[in-house]
Amino acid sequence: MTVTPRAQSPRELQVLSRIEAFRQRRPRLLEDVITLAHGAGGKSSAALTDAVFLEAFGNPTLAALGDSAGLTLPSGERVAFSTDSYVVQPIQFPGGSIGHLAVHGTVNDLAVSGAVPKWLSAGFVIEEGLSIEVLREIVADMTEAAALAGVEIVTGDTKVVPRGAADRLFINTAGIGIVPTDRVLGPERVAPTDRILVSGTMGDHGMAVMLARGELNIEADISSDTAALGGIVSELLAAAPGTRWMRDATRGGVGTVLNELAKSANVGVIIEEARLPVRPIVNGACDLLGIDPLYVANEGKFVAVVPVEESEAALAALRAHPLGEDAAIIAEVVAEPPGIVALRTPFGGSRIVDMLVGDPLPRIC
Question: Residue 281's pLDDT is what?
């Protein structure tokens, strides 16, 4: 399947150009205190990162703001180094647990950076009163996930805080992966006419966790998609060696990932709404809650940009893998207007897909 380009009307281009001028401004941190929105992966997160962390720690490696840091060892070998913290509530949910997320999240950040994940660290912040049996179950989930992902947990730390000082259990993992010598990925390689694929259905994880809280009185058979992506990423790269860029669509969902791509690559992105893969039950839950599936987190899906001539082979490779049966080509890269993501409806209309604003789904990863 391919996305057939359609020429944009002068009016569409005019509207998009006006919005571009607004959206190209650097994010500004306006708040005096931290809010939940600062951890949601959208505009507030970007503003916090820019105004506090980049300003303090700024260096060329960090400034790339990738899923992992690309480092070259004195021997000349390249490695990817990533870290993430997991604060999901509830800590056990349909399809997984905070233990699965702690392994899968960091492993996937390494995999979409082009690395072969090898080693993880694990740091635990445990609230006084947590059941030892629950902790054993979470650690067993991590053991299982690490074994299936082909990584070892080689170092760690444990802290216990007083009752009320945490929310049962927080986990931090950091990971190191080896980057093959001939593998180069980055937004600077993305070019007009490239195609954008998503490896499967969107929003499963976010909706599963949200409904598992039991606060919404909605019953739906939705399970998290949490999974290690190393195997399916390898299949994609073998079928489409010209792959330009990849990112796992976690906080902020596919919509936010595509906005990050458009800005970092200085290109436009046109999404075909009819091609977006969303399970009907997830779509229904999103409709009830007034949430766009484009912004709902996934923990076992990634977005990839490939040359148009490799797009069909890439799609076939994804669909042949158990984790990619619902993969789809969802968008194309265009030259103008740069930095803008637009969605084309089945009826020929279009709308802007902005970066996530606010925090519709707190504490989901």
Answer: 96
Angle at 95 between CA 92 and CA 97, to 5 degrees: 30
Judged by DSSP in three states, 227 sits in coil
**Residue tagged 């072969």 (tokens):** 116
- Give per-residue pLDDT as tens, 151-195: 999 999 999 999 999 999 999 999 999 999 999 999 999 999 999
Round to whole Å and give the CA distance between 198 and 227: 15
- To 5 degrees, how large is the angle CA 322–CA 328–CA 330? 150
Looking at 185-252, which runs of residues are DSSP E strands?
195-198, 245-248
Distance CA 2, CA 274 (A): 13
Q: How far apart are CA 365 and CA 361, in angstroms?
A: 10
Q: Where are the alpha helices (DSSP H) in 90-202?
A: 98-111, 132-149
| CATH code of the domain made up of 10-24+184-352 | 3.90.650.10
CATH number 2.60.120.10 is the correct assignment for the domain at 67-179:
no
> Residue for token digits 């195997």?
231
Q: Which amino acid is present at 284?
A: G
What values do phi and psi take at 168, rounded to 5? 75, -65
Q: Which two tokens stand for residue 242?
A: 């010209």
Picking from 6, 20, 13, the residue whose alpha carbon sits closest to that of residue 262 is 20
Q: What is the model's pTM?
A: 0.88
Q: Whole-angstrom Cα distance, residue 294 to residue 314?
A: 22
DSSP, res 161: E
Query: In terms of C-beta density within 10 A (0-12 exposed, 13-18 middle, 19 or more buried), how is residue 128 classed?
Result: exposed
Token pair 């390494």 in the structure block, residue: 110
Q: Domain limits of the chain? A: 10-24+184-352, 67-179
Q: What is the DSSP letter of 254?
A: H
Radius of gyration of the chain (CA): 20
